[in-house]
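Exercise 3.2. Students should predict the tertiary structure of the chain below and write it as structure tokens, then compare their answer with the key that follows.

Predict this chain's 3D structure.
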Amino acid sequence: MFRTVVLAALIALPAMASAQDAQVASPPQRIRSVTLTGDQKCPPSTNGEVVVCSTLDQPYRIPKALREDKPIAAQNQSWVNRAASMDQIGRVAGGLPDTCSAVGTGGQSGCFLARNNAYAAERRAPSSETTTTP
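Answer key:
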């Protein structure tokens, strides 16, 4: 009895595998991203095409309610960000050139550079707010 069941399963195995291959769809040939404005509707996808729609007020695929605006915790940041912050802290603490620090010989030039960058950012801010695009 057991041999008969095993023999029947071995005979049916290639037929089941070919049936599964027939059911697996081929991957999409094209992925189209559409940005909708107003009351537009997402266009239907065709065979071999995937359409991803987004609106101008929510251009991201993650819904706004699920997005986190909090800063990323230090243990979850990449090594590049960690190394950059440690480098900046070390530069300021050591009084290296171009750091705004009261310690060391390069503090004066760094403070001037920081004030100059802040002034330039303030000058750019109002001009970008008043600029309108057609």
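Discussion points: The radius of gyration is 30 Å. The chain is about 45% helix and 10% strand.
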